[in-house]
Design brief:
- By secondary structure, the protein is of the alpha+beta class.
- It has a single domain, classed as Cytochrome p450 (Orthogonal Bundle), CATH 1.10.630.
- About 50% of the residues lie in helices and about 10% in strands.
- The chain contains 20 helices and twelve strands.
- Strand 6 and strand 7 form a beta hairpin.
- Helix 8 packs across helix 9.
- The chain is globular.
- It starts with 10 loop residues before the first helix and ends with a strand.
C-alpha cells in the first residue's frame, strides 16, 4: 500500500516534534504536503498515521463503519490516565451502551440545572478581585473549571474530601500538562514502577490516592440514594441500560476521570484564549459588552447562552484554538476507502481539527480572528468540528460551550479588564491542549 505524502524522518524524532510543538509540526506538514500526509508519531515503532483536513476526507472518515476500525489500539496512550473502562477506549456495543448512558447528562433540561452553579462558582472565585489587581487567566480559568467539574459533574460539596481532591487533582493535572511528564504516556518503556520516587511510580501513587477519594464518594452516594440531586454523577448512578443494569463502580470512576481530564484543562485553555482575543481586539470587546448590557441586570443563564454575538465569539475562538487538535484516532481493521484512497490494516486515520479550521478555501483570512464569519455563514460539521464529530464526537460539547459562555459573560459583566501586555502571544502546548504563551496576565480596571 502506497501511503500519501509520507514523511521520512525517524519516527522518534517526529513523535518528539509533535509533543514539543504540535501546531508548528502540523503547520509545517500541511505547508509541505497539503491536506493529506502520513507521519509516525505514536512512539518508536509507530504505525503509519494519516492526517486529513479536507472536509470530504473527514466526512468519509466519520462514515467508516465502527466494525472496520479499532479505536482502543489507536488511543492506548490514554489508558493509564482514563482507565480501561473509559468511553474513550470502548468500541462497538460497549461504546454505544456507555454513550447512551452518558448522553442525557449533557443535554436538554439538565443544562438549566448546571447554569446557576457555573455562574455562582465563577463569582466566588473572582470575589476577591479589586481595582488595579493583576490576575493570570492561565491560573484563574483552571481553578474555575476544576471547581465546576467537582461540583457540577462529581457533585461534591465543598468540604474535606472536596479540598483533598481539588488539591491532588490540580497538582497532578498541572504536572501532566508539562511535556516531560506527558511523555511518560507516549513511551511505554518509561512506565516502570521503581517506587514512589520514580516518575511512573509517583504517578501511580498519586492516582491511587485520588481513586480512593472518588470511590469513597461513589460509595457514599449509593448509600444516600438521593433522587433530588442534579449533578452528573447522581444521574449516572440512577440510569440503567436496556438490560436494566447500572454502571459499575469502575465504570463510574473511569467516566468521571475521563470527563475531568477532557473537560478541565481544555475548557480552561479556550477561556484563556477568549479573554486574550476579546481584549486584543477592541471592536470585538465593544460589540460583546453592548450585547451583554442589552440583557439588563442578573440575566438568566439561558438568556446569556442564546446571545448570537457571544456564540459567534466562542465559535471563532474554537475555530482558531479548538478544544483538541485532532479527532479520536482510528486504526484500520478491515480495508477502508477515504477520499478515493484505500487504507489497509494497521493504518491510523486522524481527522485533523486544527488544520481543517485553517483551510483558506473554507475560511478566508483564516489566521484572523473574525467572529462575524459565524454570523454570516453556516459551516458543515466536517468544516467546523471543534469537539470532533461522528459517532465518536465529544459527548460534553454542549456543556463545554455553555460553560464557556457563562464564565466569560459572568466575568465581563462584573469587571472591566485590560491586557497587562499588549504584545501578541504564541500558541504553546500544555498537556492535551494549546494555550496562549505568557499566561494572559490582565489588570482589573474597574469592578
Amino acid at each position: 500500500m502506497k501511503l500519501p505524502n509520507e514523511i521520512k524522518t525517524p519516527s522518534l524524532l517526529q513523535t518528539l516534534q509533535l509533543i514539543a510543538s504540535p501546531t508548528q509540526f502540523l503547520d509545517n506538514c500541511a505547508a509541505q504536503y497539503g491536506n493529506t500526509f502520513t507521519v509516525r508519531v505514536l512512539g518508536v515503532n509507530s504505525p503509519p498515521v494519516v492526517f486529513f483536513s479536507d472536509s470530504q476526507a473527514i466526512s468519509d472518515c466519520f462514515a467508516v463503519p465502527a466494525k472496520s476500525l479499532d479505536f482502543k489500539k489507536a488511543t492506548h496512550v490514554f489508558q493509564p490516565l482514563f482507565g480501561e473502562k473509559s468511553i474513550v477506549l470502548q468500541e462497538g456495543v460497549s461504546h454505544n451502551r456507555q454513550r447512551q448512558l452518558l448522553m442525557p447528562s449533557f443535554h436538554g433540561d439538565r443544562m438549566k440545572y448546571y447554569g446557576e452553579s457555573i455562574c455562582k462558582i465563577t463569582e466566588e472565585v473572582t470575589n476577591q478581585w479589586k481595582h488595579g489587581m493583576k490576575v493570570s487567566m492561565q491560573e484563574v480559568m483552571p481553578d474555575i473549571t476544576l471547581q465546576i467539574i467537582l461540583q457540577v459533574v462529581f457533585g461534591i460539596s465543598p468540604g474535606e474530601r472536596y479540598e483533598q481532591l481539588k488539591k491532588l487533582l490540580s497538582k497532578l493535572l498541572d504536572d501532566i500538562t508539562t511535556p516531560w511528564y506527558s511523555s511518560l504516556f507516549f513511551f511505554p518503556p518509561l512506565q516502570q514502577d521503581l517506587g514512589a520516587w520514580s516518575p511512573w511510580g509517583n504517578y501511580l501513587k498519586r492516582r491511587e490516592y485520588i481513586d480512593k477519594l472518588i470511590y469513597a464518594e461513589i460509595d457514599q452516594r449509593r448509600l444516600e440514594n438521593d433522587d433530588s440531586r442534579t449533578d452528573v454523577l447522581s444521574l449516572l448512578l440512577s440510569v440503567r441500560d436496556e438490560n436494566g443494569e447500572q454502571m459499575s463502580d469502575d465504570e463510574l470512576r473511569d467516566q468521571l476521570v475521563s470527563l475531568l481530564l477532557l473537560g478541565y484543562e481544555t475548557t480552561a485553555g479556550v477561556l484563556s484564549w477568549l479573554f486574550y482575543l476579546i481584549h486584543y481586539h477592541e471592536d470585538v470587546k465593544s460589540k460583546l459588552l453592548n450585547e451583554l448590557d442589552s440583557l439588563g441586570d442578573r440575566p438568566q443563564p439561558e438568556e446569556i447562552a442564546q446571545l448570537p454575538y457571544l456564540t459567534a465569539v466562542c465559535q471563532e475562538t474554537l475555530r482558531l484554538h479548538p478544544i483538541a487538535l485532532i479527532c479520536t484516532p482510528r486504526m484500520v481493521k478491515e480495508n477502508v476507502e477515504v477520499a478515493g484512497s484505500k487504507y489497509e490494516y494497521g493504518t491510523v486515520l486522524v481527522p485533523c481539527i486544527y488544520l481543517a479550521h485553517r483551510r483558506t478555501e473554507v475560511y478566508p483570512e483564516a489566521e484572523k480572528f473574525l467572529p462575524e464569519r459565524f454570523l454570516n455563514q453556516k459551516f458543515s460539521p466536517y468544516e467546523f468540528l471543534p469537539f470532533g464529530g461522528g459517532y465518536r464526537g465529544c459527548i460534553g460539547s454542549a456543556f463545554s460551550l455553555y460553560e464557556m459562555k457563562l464564565v466569560l459573560a459572568t466575568i465581563l459583566s462584573r469587571f472591566q479588564l485590560r491586557l497587562a501586555d499588549n504584545r501578541s502571544v504564541k500558541p504553546v502546548r500544555r498537556g492535551i491542549t494549546i494555550v496562549p504563551s505568557g499566561g494572559v496576565p490582565m489588570v482589573i480596571v474597574d469592578c
